[in-house]
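Morning!

This is the sequence you dropped in the shared folder:
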Amino acid sequence: MTHNTKEIKMKDNLIVEAVFFCGVVKDFGVSLVFEKHPEYKVLKEDNNLWQNAELLPQGSGVYINDEMDLTAEEIWKYGKTVDKVPVEAKYEIACAISSAREEKGLSQKQLSLLSGVTQCDISRIEGAATNPTMETLCRICKVLGLELSDVKI
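The structure's back. Tokens below.
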């Protein structure tokens, strides 16, 4: 399943606090990647580099610099769940649609062909970059076998 990050906070001790679209909050210690990626050890000495890390487009991960980033998937998989917070409807919608699409084994392009919603619009909905119309949501939900109440509007 694709897990997108809504926001990040770079904490002391090289901990990333990530809030995911579904509202789950996880802490991920970057020291976990030191053995596999020794170049990340520079973060222990360069606090400025660490503090200036940014969220990648559509919440796909954390950009540190051109050589270093962390994917949202690895933060989700290896991070420790520390909280669950309420999120805006567009994030709930994004999470519900991307999860249902992946459970059905459909690509965004396949969902586009079946629903008549452009692949670009599906990507923007799953990335919480747009507020879809009810008509668009109904067309997508019909293909995915979802009720509108399943997407927590």
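Headline: The chain has two domains: 5-84, 89-151.

More detail when I'm at my desk.
O.
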